[in-house]
Design brief:
Elements (H helix, E strand, L loop, with lengths): L1 E4 L13 E4 L9 E11 L1 H9 L16 E8 L11 E4 L12 E5 L3 E3 L6 H5 L2 H14 L10 E5 L4 H13 L3 E5 L3 H10 L3 E3 L4 H7 L5 E6 L3 H11 E9 L18 E4 L4 H5 L6 H15 L6 E6 L3 H12 L6 E5 L1
Parallel strand pairs: 8-9, 8-11, 9-10, 11-12, 12-13, 14-15
Antiparallel strand pairs: 1-2, 3-4, 3-6, 3-15, 4-5, 5-7
């Protein structure tokens, strides 16, 4: 099968940062599905893994990354019960396994959902990782529920991949009042399109939130840099509120700043369930199926903004270059 990978960690402008190559089609066993991939999404985790996972060494066989895919089930393992050959699926995969930048991929059925019927493969491939991340942090980590309807949530990084769908889920599923950060006219407009009630500039966060009419907010989601905004979070969060983050802090986070307000703090990593084979691993299958219903009803919209055509190293270089710029709005997908 055709695949795109790398044998060492290189800057994206290096000609060998991604290479085209051929490899064997894997065979599914156990809970595994063999999926013929039609499209794959690109996320910040992709370039972080490319930059850091093979530093200072060279692999004999190229590493295949990619953790967002939509495709068709080609073959199933002997313990599979949720899917059959020919089913159209979407999923974000397992960071400890071979990725989706290839013609075929093995994936555990328990973290796979049925592709939304109303979405193209490209539009569907844009959504699993970000939807799971946003859903898990809101409902599994921070335990937001019916009693919280109408409460306020501040989303840092509203125009990014996770921020875009988090705005939609927070507004249209959880029923929250949504404040999102953005600074450029195009990113402000994008956040508004996703359903944000207010868009504030992250460069003066505390004053911007207060100018929007909020002395404090009930929930805060950080999709950018928890260190950069921590003092602002501690000031803005309401007593007994909750803060959630997916970012990778370079310095310790001072949780003592939250003690007087009895504020809870929650980490989210979408890969936790698959990495540790948790007892509730099938929850990701359930979440993706719930989300598929919401996409098909029109409650949620795909956040696909850029589509590149062809399983080619050059397309992954283009996508990673754009992701590394830090100015991406929505999601980039490569269709095969």
């Amino acid at each position: 099968m055709k695949a795109v990978g790398f044998t060492t960690s290189l800057p994206i402008n290096d000609t060998e940062s991604f290479i085209d190559f051929e490899t064997e089609i894997p065979k599914p066993t156990g809970y595994e599905l063999l999926v013929k991939i039609k499209a794959t999404g690109v996320n910040p985790v992709d370039y972080k893994i490319r930059q850091n996972s093979v530093k200072g060494k060279t692999l004999d066989m190229p590493k295949i990354i990619g953790w967002d895919a939509a495709g068709v089930v080609e073959e199933v393992g002997d313990q599979v019960t949720l899917f059959k050959k020919g089913d159209e699926v979407y999923y974000a995969g397992d960071i400890t396994k071979t990725g989706s930048n290839a013609e075929f991929q093995l994936v555990d059925e328990r973290i796979v959902g049925k592709k939304p019927v109303s979405l193209t493969f490209a539009a569907a491939a844009a959504m699993p990782l970000t939807t799971l991340t946003a859903w898990e942090i809101l409902f599994d980590r921070m335990r937001i529920n019916e009693k919280d309807k109408g409460k306020s949530i501040l989303i840092i990084g509203g125009a990014g991949g996770v921020g875009s769908i988090a705005i939609q889920i927070a507004k249209k599923v959880a029923g929250l009042t949504v404040l999102a950060t953005a600074s450029r006219p195009e990113s402000v407009e994008w956040c508004q399109q996703q359903g944000a009630d207010y868009v504030v500039n992250h460069r003066d966060l505390v004053n911007e939130v207060k100018s929007a009419g909020f002395r404090q907010v009930d929930f805060i989601l950080d999709f950018v840099d928890v260190n950069q905004y921590w003092d602002a979070f501690a000031e803005l969060i309401r007593p007994q509120g909750a803060i959630g983050s997916i970012s990778d802090p370079t310095q310790p986070v001072n949780l003592r700043q939250l003690k007087s307000k009895s504020v809870s703090f929650h980490w989210e990593l979408m890969f936790t369930r698959s990495m540790f084979q948790t007892g509730d691993i099938t929850e990701q299958h359930i979440i993706l199926n719930k989300a598929a219903e919401l996409f098909d009803k029109g409650t949620l919209q795909s956040t696909l903004t850029t589509t590149l055509s062809g399983l080619l190293a050059d397309n992954f270089k283009t996508a990673h270059r754009q992701m590394e710029s830090g100015s991406t709005i929505g999601k980039i997908v490569i269709k095969y």
